[in-house]
Amino acid sequence: MKIDERLLPVRKRTRQIQVGNVAIGGDAPVSVQSMTTTKTADVEATLAQIYELAGAGADIVRCTCNEEQAAEGLAKIVPRSPVPIIADVHFHYEMAMAAIEAGVNGLRLNPGNLRKPEEIKLVAREAKDHAIPIRIGVNAGSLHPDLLKRYGKPTPEALVESARMELEMLHEVGFEDVKISVKASNVMLMINAYRLASETFDNPLHLGVTEAGPLPAGMIKTTAGIATLLAEGIGDTIRYSLTADPVEEAKAGRILLESMGLRKRKSVDLIACPSCGRAEVDVIAIAKAAEAELAKRSIPLQVAVMGCVVNGPGEARGADLGIAAGRHRGHLFIRGKIVRVVPEDEMVEALVDEAEKLMAEGVEARLAAADADAERLAEQDSRAARSY
Ligand code: SF4
Predict the structure, then answer these.
(1) For labelling, which of 4, 56, 214, 250 has a CA lying 20 to 30 Å from the CA of 239?
(2) CATH (one of 1.10.287.70, 3.40.50.1360, 3.30.413.10, 3.40.50.720) for 269-378
(3) Which atom of ligand 1 is nearest to the CA of 315?
(4) What is the pTM of this model?
(5) Residue of 281, 308, 331 best suited for mutating to test ligand 1, as the one with most atoms within 8 Å of CB
(6) Interval between CA 322 and ligand 1 midpoint (Å)
């Protein structure tokens, strides 16, 4: 089911920058980022993870560039990567220079860790010569000591001031291709810092709740922060920073954007009731199995699994494909039309089979086939009745 365009957030128009072949800001779709956890010097392991992340929905991947061997690794990784690569640089400007030389598509600089203006400007000049953008990546946990002294603690104003000071330095050398992040692990601090950043800058914003932690809390905190801002029209690219396999980050980012109608659906949207004492089938098991099977096949349909007649027919009717269960069986719907009755133990198979056919043949053809089946069955029944 398509999301009504009128319900979508009106995005704040920011300047557009280009990270490799991915546009960020302006009217570009909100992109998903993640970061590798391998040693960047280990080229094969890093590339394997980048491919996994791209497959899970990452549009851009960041790798740390913390030592000479990492920069050497990047030189081999970038040409073989399926997505643009950003080098994450903290303490040593030489690493930024080496990453640019290695051919990366963008840099992330942390103003709290790379502090000398002459070094920052040197990096900006080199990035400009190579036409690659820079993210000013402010982090509440590594705020510049001068700002900590001035503001007493990380505040929205302190985080935005850090970004403003760095931006000024980049502007001094004529560098404009900048995106900004003002991350914090505290959700409300993060939300308010980004609101202020959005009022202050016209640069694209990279959203994230930093160091969000393990699942499920990390996922919930990050979604609270990022989704709140996206719903206000703030944000051009996002990253979940989870203490988990980064594939979970890429998946979460993609699912969030698809759920909010900000990206075209690539994977299944499974609607299912939470189940309760009224349920007439094992909704949880059926929904879980159907979601896993449909996700494996990258089927971008909305599929409903509902446990009884209370909300079942309504939700099942509204989805592309749905089951509204009765006692150990259920009605199978295609775009609002009941096409047949399916026993409980065949529901997952029926949903997957029908979803594959819908993708291959289209809705009209499937509904016509269902009508033909129904007619054929009715004809068989009436012949059987006549023969008695
Ligand atoms: S649809 Fe039925 S089974 Fe599912 S939660 Fe609602 S009342 Fe319970």
Answers:
(1) 4
(2) 3.30.413.10
(3) 1
(4) 0.89
(5) 308
(6) 14
pLDDT, tens digit, 9 for 90 and up, residues 240-297: 999 999 999 999 999 999 999 999 988 899 999 999 999 989 999 999 999 999 989 9
Q: What is the pLDDT of residues 51-90, one digit of tens each?
A: 999 999 999 999 999 999 999 999 999 999 999 999 999 8
CA of 125 to the centre of ligand 1 (A): 61
Domain residue spans of the chain: 9-259, 269-378
Protein residues whose CB sits closer than 6 Å to any atom of ligand 1 = 273-276, 278-279, 306-308, 310-312
Ligand 1 atom nearest residue 274's Cα: 5
CATH number of 9-259: 3.20.20.20
Distance CA 357, CA 176 (A): 49
